[in-house]
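Intended use. Records like the one below are meant for learning the mapping from a protein sequence to its folded structure. Do not use them to infer anything beyond what is encoded.
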Amino acid sequence: MAHNQDDIFDLFDIKAFDTREAEIQSIKGKDIMQYKTKTIVSGPMLESEIYPVWRIPLGGRGKSCNPSREAQRNLNNKNAVKRVIRLINTNFDARHIWATLTYHPDHLPETPEQAKRDMQNYIRRIKRQMEKAGLGELKYIYVTEYAEAGPGVPKKRVHHHIVMNLTDRDIAERMWNGGGRTQARRLQPDDYGLEGMARYITKDPKGFKRYSCSRNLKQPIVYESMHRFTKRKAEKLASDLDGAKAMFEKMYPKYVFKDLEIRYSQFVSGVYIYAKMRRLN
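Structure written out for the chain above:
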């Protein structure tokens, strides 16, 4: 029985019930057939998502199938941030750079489409420089923030963030011709890879953001299993959080446990378990 993973995640909340008894009652729902484990590997980072599979299809239960425009916008934004984090962790590391590109007030693009053309031209110039220097094929992902002047925004704002497999910061700064300030920095992974930087460049703005990436990016590796996590193991983990670290490090012996998130739902039975891990060494 196939479910849309993003829809399932939206059904669960960090704290859906006021009492532990209500949580346990939800976990033991009789309509749960089994639990599914989805493993996402993005470079050095591993995410494990464990969620129930019900006897009744997801479309026949839970929240309204027609969420509000604002709710759908928020869900789309969350999913876009996830995709950007995973792509950046999969394709870039401490050898590479990221840059912030701004405009002089006299050079601000009139439309989002013009801002996109500015970035396409910038990327073409970077590619030519890399070809001349024999630096290989450019990989990139960039985010454009575009906000017209209005309530909460005293003046029009447009700028770009770009992450590249380029190693020369001088080239990154010299090739921008928007007239504003440019700043290129070396990427600095931490215990969560490059997630902190990725969240910074995708933070919800006044206005809107769009991201684009090169077609040669590697995709995160995704594994799915219907047998790795039993109902009993899910119930045990939700009741014994202290044992989570040992349990997940046994499941994924080449990774070190970093975070755990347990979610419950007032709309469906079961528990949603999310663990984040980092590759050893």
